[in-house]
């Protein structure tokens, strides 16, 4: 695998905010921040958050957050204010009125500032764990929240649990024979006009490089040669870390869909990708918040 290059970061890959992780061990940090009127709270309901403007999240004071949330400390803003998450399960209708409505991360992530995008990803990723894993997986006892929302301790067996992150690879396949061709696939669950990169979870005991070669072979029939790392992105659906690559095909003619997960594969010319990125033509590509879009757009820009 070749060394990483200096391509620009995906919108959801920026550091975002100061997580102030060393503060999580401070006793009652979360409860103290919840009573501080200068603290700012990002409310997440399901996978949506309120917007102050089409390109900005709405941050509330703790007193303006409805009852019933799971809370966590996200970090510190540039002025030192505590940034908190208040997380709710999905529900019918908006939790409260927001100036620019509510939107999901997939929809609005690419329009947000690095600070807001990073906070949204962090809050959504951590919040799903807070909601989905209240019980000890070893003995089934309800756990006690600790580290300002970043850990759980079982009062019965004493085990400590932390949020999970599942690594997954995502790959755009280039042609060794023709530098102006890119192979993409259409998932069986999508419309026939939607194409994206090939992706899959890393299996137990498997390296990223091995996962790239296995997933590409399984989904597209392609044996790859050179594998190039292009960047990573947290993707909280439900708790993935997407690690992006370009991989060179050894034999373009071997491309075929697996017929199960992937319904169709297609070699696209650089011109076709350019038109699709511009919203022209009959092909739909991934949204700008995803690393798949970045992989495709960066490849297109190299010779555009």
Describe this entry's structure for a reader.
The structure is a single chain. Helices cover 20% and strands 30% of the residues. Mean pLDDT is 94; it is low at 1-7. The chain folds into two domains: 21-132, no CATH class; 166-301, Nucleoside Triphosphate Pyrophosphohydrolase (Alpha-Beta Complex). With 304 residues, it is of the alpha+beta class. The strands form four sheets. Strands 10, 11, 12, 13, 14 and 15 form a six-stranded mixed β-sheet that branches. Strands 1-5-4 form a three-stranded mixed β-sheet. A hairpin with a 6-residue loop joins strand 8 and strand 9 (160-161). It contains six helices and 15 strands. It is globular. The protein has helices at 29-34, 105-108, 114-132, 208-220, 270-277, 291-301, and strands at residues 40-45, 48-53, 56-57, 70-76, 82-88, 102-104, 144-146, 151-153, 160-161, 166-175, 181-187, 198-201, 224-235, 240-249, 262-269.
Count of extended strands? 15
Chain-averaged pLDDT:
94
The CATH topology of the largest domain is what? Nucleoside Triphosphate Pyrophosphohydrolase
Which shape, going by the Cα principal axes? Answer: globular
Instruction: Please describe the biggest sheet, giving its number of strands, its sense, and whether it closes into a barrel.
Output: 6 strands, mixed
CATH structural architecture of the largest domain: Alpha-Beta Complex
- Terminal CA distance reads 25 Å
Helix and strand content put the structural class at: alpha+beta
Approximate strand percentage: 25-35%
Number of domains: 2
Assembly of the depicted chains: single chain
The secondary-structure element order is HEEEEEEHHEEEEEEHEEEHH
Main CATH class of the largest domain: Alpha Beta
């Amino acid at each position: 695998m070749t060394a990483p290059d200096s391509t620009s970061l995906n919108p959801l890959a920026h550091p975002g905010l100061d997580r102030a992780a060393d503060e999580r061990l401070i006793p009652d940090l979360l409860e103290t921040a919840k009573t501080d009127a200068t603290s700012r709270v990002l409310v997440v309901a399901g996978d949506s958050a309120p917007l102050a403007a089409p390109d900005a999240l709405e941050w509330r004071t703790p007193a303006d957050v409805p009852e019933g949330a799971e809370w966590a400390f996200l970090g510190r803003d540039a002025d030192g204010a505590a940034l908190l998450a208040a997380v709710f399960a999905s529900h019918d209708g908006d939790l409260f009125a927001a100036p620019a409505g509510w939107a999901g991360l997939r929809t609005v992530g690419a329009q947000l500032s690095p600070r807001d995008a990073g906070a949204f990803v962090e809050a959504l990723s951590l919040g799903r764990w807070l909601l989905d894993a209240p019980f000890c997986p070893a003995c089934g006892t309800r756990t006690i929240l600790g580290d300002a929302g970043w850990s759980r301790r079982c009062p019965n067996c004493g085990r400590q649990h932390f949020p999970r992150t599942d690594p997954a690879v995502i790959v755009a396949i280039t042609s060794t024979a023709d530098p102006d061709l890119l192979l993409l696939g259409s998932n069986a669950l999508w419309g026939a006009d939607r194409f994206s990169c090939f992706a899959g979870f890393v299996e137990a005991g498997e390296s990223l490089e091995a996962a790239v070669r296995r997933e590409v072979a399984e989904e597209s029939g392609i044996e790859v040669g050179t594998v190039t790392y292009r960047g990573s992105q947290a993707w909280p659906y439900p708790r993935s870390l997407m690690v992006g690559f370009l991989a060179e095909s050894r034999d373009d003619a071997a491309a075929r869909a697996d017929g199960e997960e992937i319904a169709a594969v297609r070699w696209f010319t650089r011109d076709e990708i350019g038109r699709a990125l511009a919203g022209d033509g009959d092909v739909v590509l991934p949204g700008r918040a995803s690393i798949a879009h970045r992989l495709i757009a960066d490849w297109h820009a190299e010779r555009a």
